[in-house]
Amino acid sequence: MTKNLTVVIPAFNEEESLELFLPKVIHHCKEKNYKLIVVNDGSLDNTLEVLSSFSAPEEFFKIVSHKVNKGYGGALKSGINACDTDYVVTIDADGQHYMEDVDRLFYKIKETDADLVVGSRKGQLSASWFRGVGKSLIRTVARMLMKLSIYDINSGMKIYNTELAKQYLKLTPDTMSFSDIITLTFVNNKHLVIEEPIQIKNRLKGTSTIGVRTAFETVMEIINIIILFNPARVFLPISAFFLVFGTIWGAYFFFQGKGISIGASTLILTGLIVFLLSLIAEQLSGMRKNM
């Protein structure tokens, strides 16, 4: 690997945005000696034709094209796997990011020797009220399940140590939740993850595909990754709830002379089963992490 940077852009049906945005990206990358990889994720429009219309040396500008749509995460995985530089930064194809922020993140990761620098949009308004609420919900769930100091875990602009990013790609989903999960993976594995403020602008063209389903999938993926790395964080509170509630319920019936409550016994038994599942999950987690 060379001690430089590769810019990776996943693109699905972004022909209009790319026509406006990509010339600026290519010019900036040439000026800064960055490499550029754009992943056409099985687009149904003329995205591939638009990409092919830009002429640049193959060693500098590479197009990776999927025959079918693999999803946002799947496109990023292909782009990151194609990198041969020490660092890789991901940005969106909708033109919302500034190339000056790419320089800022690149400087930050070299200055601090961090493993991942997240481009934070903290303090900036979301594209819609609905998306703002969804992001807040995702952050809340993540913080409930793990110790997390990073605010904008789902930012599309991040710069990674390429070797580490490639190492964890198998743990990440192909969906929009890729950004959240890879951040949590770096944090869980005790790598240095920091934030650096960035600016965003409105999407140039097209419409976003993020919706309720995206938020639900992201929450489920967060729960999955926490269970993988720290299952007790999920199972123990559930076990404690059943045990405590069952004990209080059973004691109330018992001291009133009504005998042993079947409902309370069921709750206590459920709590014990969940506790045992937590021990098994911890063992499996330890084995998986060693692998």
Folded structure, characterized:
- By secondary structure, the chain is of the alpha/beta class.
- The chain is elongated.
- Helices cover 53% and strands 15% of the residues.
- It has helices at residues 15-32, 47-52, 72-81, 99-112, 129-145, 162-168, 178-188, 212-229, 232-255, 262-290; strands at residues 2-11, 35-41, 61-66, 85-90, 116-120, 158-161, 193-197.
- The model has no long low-confidence stretch (mean pLDDT 84).
- Strands 3-2-1-4-6-5-7 form a seven-stranded mixed β-sheet, sandwiched between helices.
- Helix 5 packs parallel to helix 8 (212-229), helix 7 (178-188) runs parallel beside helix 8 and helix 9 runs antiparallel to helix 10 (262-290).
- The protein folds into two domains: 2-229, Alpha-Beta Complex (Spore Coat Polysaccharide Biosynthesis Protein SpsA, Chain A); 232-290.
Oligomer: single chain
The tally of structural domains comes to: 2
End-to-end CA span? 25 Å
Average pLDDT for all residues: 84
Largest sheet: 7 strands, mixed
Order of helices and strands: EHEHEHEHEHEHHEHHH
**Which percent band covers the strand fraction?**
5-15%
Give the C-alpha Rg: 23 Å
Structural class: alpha/beta
What would CATH call the class of the largest domain? Alpha Beta
Summarize the structure.
The chain has 291 residues and is an alpha/beta fold. It has ten helices and seven strands. Helix 9 (232-255) packs antiparallel against helix 10.
